[in-house]
Automatic annotation (TrEMBL):
This is DNA-binding response regulator. The keyword Lyase does not apply. It comes from Alicyclobacillus hesperidum. One of its GO terms (cellular component) is protein-DNA complex. Coiled coil: none annotated.
């Protein structure tokens, strides 16, 4: 299960990430609202844990933006405020749960488990499609024109990122951050290697690649380019 943690207090964010990892969750952590909003809209998570008071963009604004863009991922709000008005504001913005700081780790984990049981309700996030490709999260399968493609976990994540950002140039730095995580210790040409692996599995023989290299910048995924193939 993938969790996005948006928390600007570095020590708390580090402690929560370690706690969640120890309980078998995969966690991406960012420390400002703009980065959190960007990830929440362009990547796929099972749960978002979102602090309200954040630099650059508030947690409430992130939450409203998510819901306005059709992202129905369950959201647990964290806040130091405990007034009725604050709770109502958060819930009206689309939050699924609300936890006041300071909190007990056991309570946080219990609320995460409760939200995780709801994820199957959001059919809008079960699958995404781009051109001939369909990526199904419930079965972890990928098809091209109905034909199953055998991808590794990292290739699956990479294709998902491309599909969510089709016809946009993605830099190698962005790909590293989204697929391997901002804290990952990646050595060498990981992005180039995995793009190469992915191309071999998704491209059609004798036709141009769906993933174009933009020299000096990154990569461009064009799923509808098949019409010009």
């Amino acid at each position: 299960m993938r969790i996005l943690l948006v928390e600007d207090e570095a020590r708390l964010a580090s402690a929560l990430k370690q706690l969640l990892k120890e309980n078998q969750y995969a966690v991406d952590t960012v420390h400002d609202g703009d980065s959190g909003y960007d990830l929440a809209l362009t990547d796929s998570y099972d749960i978002v844990i979102l602090d309200i008071m954040l630099p650059k963009m508030s947690g409430i604004d992130i939450l409203r933006g998510m819901r306005e863009n059709g992202v129905q991922t369950p959201v647990l709000l964290l806040t130091a405020k405990d007034t009725v008005e604050d709770r109502v504001t958060g819930l009206d913005a689309g939050a699924d749960d609300y936890l006041v700081k300071p909190f007990d780790n056991k309570e946080l984990l219990a609320r995460v488990r409760a939200l995780s049981r709801r994820t199957g309700q959001f059919s809008g996030s079960d699958a995404i499609e781009a051109g001939p490709f369909r990526l199904d999260f419930s079965t972890r399968t990928v098809t091209r024109n109905g034909e199953a493609l055998a991808l590794t976990a990292k290739e699956f994540q990479l294709l998902e990122l491309f599909m969510r950002n089709q016809n946009k140039v993605l830099s190698k730095e962005i790909i590293l951050d989204r697929v391997w995580g901002p804290d990952a210790d990646v050595i060498g040409n990981a992005v180039e290697n995995y793009v190469h692996f992915l191309r071999k599995k998704i491209d059609e023989s004798g036709k141009p690649s769906y993933i174009a290299t933009v020299r000096g910048v990154g990569y461009l995924f064009q799923p509808d380019a098949s019409e010009a193939r």
